[in-house]
Amino acid sequence: MISRFLPHPVRRLFGVKTQHPRISGFSLVDKPGQIQPLLAAIDQVSEVVMDTEADNMYRFRVRVCLLQFYVCGEVFLVDALAPVELGPLWSRLEKKHLVMHGSDFDLRLLYDFCQFRAKSLFDTMLAAQLLGRSRIGLASLIEDNFGVKLDKDGQKANWSRRPITQKLLDYAALDVWYLPALRDILTRELKRLGRLDWMEQQCQAQIEAGVTGFAPQDENDWRIGRSERLRARGQAVLHSIWHWRQEQAQRLDTPPFKVCSNEFLIRLAAAADEGGPEEAILSGVNLGKRHARLIGSLAAAVRSGIERDPRTLPRRPGRDPNHMPLTQAEIARLDRIKEDRDKIAAKISIEATLIANRAQLSLIARDPRKLGEILLPWQASLLAEAPSLKA
For residues 233 and 310, is the Cβ–Cβ distance under 8 A? Predict the structure, then answer.
């Protein structure tokens, strides 16, 4: 679908509270040979506006489903599940500056998908955070800056379903449609506050984090929230039913949380800790109509956990020296540093954790000399002025 380019909505709708107009000014690339105009457009520019849509809410293994681009005044939507050769696209994009919003997930997803690494980046969500904006979601920023209220239904859509509806295509186009003008507004504010260097550092850190991809599976992933409160029998049952959930999710090609929740698993494991038989543990279990047929395999998993020797469970990893409990003196220092950080953040009107989060503060409290290794330069320069670190 090749559509006529429309005037940019920012110019037409600035300051007007309204539902977004139907976007028809985009090209849908979903067949072999249709990607050439996009490649030609990218060749003409140094900057590309980009977004992705994935099916992580609907599949066991996440897939890239749609790629959105704003290049040379036109929106291109690329169906990543269609038989379209994407190699030439990635080789071009890796040489361009990207404008994105909330890019952390996208960059990790693309690295896992094809080892893509961004050259440079401007992330409008990071910019909004550094400006102390209270609303940093894309729809909120568009409403706050352009007076346009966008439909949010696409946030929970199944992007792997084909054909993609016109409503979802419009939604996807809007994700990149407003970003150039939004970037310009945020850049002016960052420049006025002297925070452009902060922005560059944050974006570079986002790129570096992206090339780590998603965390690989670990033999202790089954140790979910509150599992440390379980005794030996409950731990063994939790190990068994957590792996049961993973196996069922993979078989059904659905996210594990759609089989059952972590709370459900913990509740069964806690019931096992009471020492009752399998029937008592499963009493009142309801997997819903969709997964009712799984009760037999769940019962087998509970039985396997009851019968397992807890001493054969995977051992917890040894303590990282950087995560040993803080001494009383270090805890007192941590409290002082946190108080100073909060005052600094309030003074410049940004979220305190942007300067340093709890884990980083603990590392600094353990060894203040490593401040520059733990934080980005802009963060370290702010915190270095704290009285707690000057003493």
Answer: yes
| Residue 261 structure tokens | 């929740």
Predicted local confidence at residue 288, as pLDDT: 77
Q: 173, 165 in Cβ contact below 8 A?
A: no
Position with higher pLDDT, 24 vs 288: 288
Distance set, CA 53 to CA 62, 82, 109, 171, 240 (Å): 10, 14, 10, 11, 33
Q: How far apart are CA 364 and CA 379, in angstroms?
A: 12
For residue 101, CA distances in Å to 136, 141, 345 come to 9, 10, 23
d(CA 238, CA 341): 40
Name 299's Cβ contacts closer than 8 Å, sequence gap at least 6.
278, 282
Mean pLDDT to the nearest integer, 309-328: 81
Helix (H) or strand (E) holding 366: helix 358-366
Distances (CA, A) of 144 to 127, 135, 138, 182: 15, 9, 10, 10
Do 23 and 170 meet the contact criterion of CB atoms below 8 Å apart? yes
Using CA atoms of 257, 260, 263, 265 in order, give the dihedral in degrees to the nearest 10.
Answer: -120
What gap in Å lies between CA 318 and CA 339, rounded to an integer?
A: 32
In the chain, the N- to C-terminal Cα span, in Å, equals 66
Give me the sign of the Cα torsion angle 172, 175, 178, 180.
Answer: negative
Question: Could you report the per-residue pLDDT of 102-142, keeping only the tens digit for each?
Answer: 999 999 999 999 999 999 999 999 999 999 999 999 999 99
Domains of the chain, start order = 9-210 (3.30.420.10), 227-312 (1.10.150.80), 321-390 (1.10.150)
How would you list the strands of the sheet with 97-100, edge to edge? 26-29, 74-79, 64-71, 47-54, 97-100, 120-123
